[in-house]
Specification:
single chain; alpha/beta; Rossmann fold; eight-stranded mixed β-sheet; 9 helices; 8 strands; 33% helix; 17% strand
């Protein structure tokens, strides 16, 4: 086994960095790529994120920790709007397929891949990864502790416009309260069957026994949020408890197991892997985040 990559963070675009890894090398992938909020055509680095966050800092926007940027959020729903919406989706899907193709190559047969995404676009991520050879297994529901309605309150909208009888539209909104996040579960095809794949590659299975003796479901809830670390300025940090649960369920805890995160962010996947004594590889395009990852990893006892 090539050990040069183990327990390291590679700095760069994962589409290029993944090419440096050997074939059939990693046992699992847990990753949280940028969602499709007008992502295409922008350099997704810390400068871009901060620019978007500045746009909502003093606004009435309820969610201020997520980078603003979707030009598709408003506007007149005419033919041009829907055309732009569709083009954006296709571009995002193609971008996902670009990095997924290299990820497929470096995964062992039976390796499980988990990709976070929004409820609106997780289907496009699944399709992109299926195009390059992965097999769709499930969608995990990560139920957050709260959710905020982000659409139009039609009663208030009509009141602002001076319409009479606006109260008739009390309770009518343009969306539901968003309370869960999707985690797409895919797998590189097995070698003939689960038993043969397990014995040769140590992959293919999910750990389903819960602490209370129950059988693990595909809904994860009651996950506590972490206390924010002053030095961790990443805007979308996943709870460490959540990543621990995902590592426990989907990453083989055996000798030679490797988990990869091509969009390492602030390194929560890698921290969880290190806590379990599992070798990891992180890839992150933003250099300033690597300092955060290394600091967090240094706080985990070997």
């Amino acid at each position: 086994m090539n050990k040069d990559f183990l327990n390291t963070i590679m700095n760069g675009d994962c589409r290029e960095e993944l090419k440096k890894l050997p074939d059939n090398y990693v046992s699992a992938c847990l990753t949280d790529p940028p969602y499709n909020y007008e992502f295409i055509g922008h350099k997704w680095d810390d400068g871009e994120i901060q620019r978007r966050m500045e746009r909502v800092k003093d606004s009435n926007t309820l969610v201020k920790n997520i980078p603003y940027g979707s030009g598709l959020a408003g506007g007149i729903r005419n033919k041009s709007w829907y055309k732009k919406n569709r083009e954006n989706i296709v571009d995002y899907e193609n971008w996902c397929a670009d990095w997924a193709a290299e990820l497929f190559r470096v995964c062992k047969p039976g390796a499980t891949v988990l990709v976070f995404n929004s409820t609106r676009t997780v289907a496009h991520v699944q399709v992109a990864l299926e195009k390059v050879g992965f097999y769709a297994r499930d969608i995990i529901v990560y139920r957050r502790t709260s959710g905020i309605p982000k659409g139009i309150n039609m009663q208030k909208k009509l009141e602002q416009k001076g319409y009479q009888d606006s109260e008739k539209f009390k309770g009518w909104h343009s969306c539901l309260r968003s309370e869960w996040e999707a985690i797409c579960v895919l797998q590189k095809p097995l070698k003939n069957n689960y038993t043969e794949t397990l014995l040769e590659f140590g992959t293919g299975l999910f750990y389903t026994e819960m602490d209370n003796g129950g059988f693990q479901s595909n809904i994860l809830e009651n996950i506590k949020r972490d206390k924010s670390q002053d030095y961790n300025v990443h805007c979308t940090v996943k709870p460490l408890e959540l990543m621990r649960r995902l590592v426990e369920i989907f990453v083989p805890r055996i000798k030679g197991s490797i988990v990869i995160d091509p969009f390492a962010g602030s390194g929560t996947t890698l921290v969880a892997a290190k806590e379990y004594g599992i070798d990891y590889i992180g890839i992150e395009i933003e250099p300033s985040y690597i300092e955060i990852i290394e600091r967090r990893l240094s706080e985990v006892s070997d």
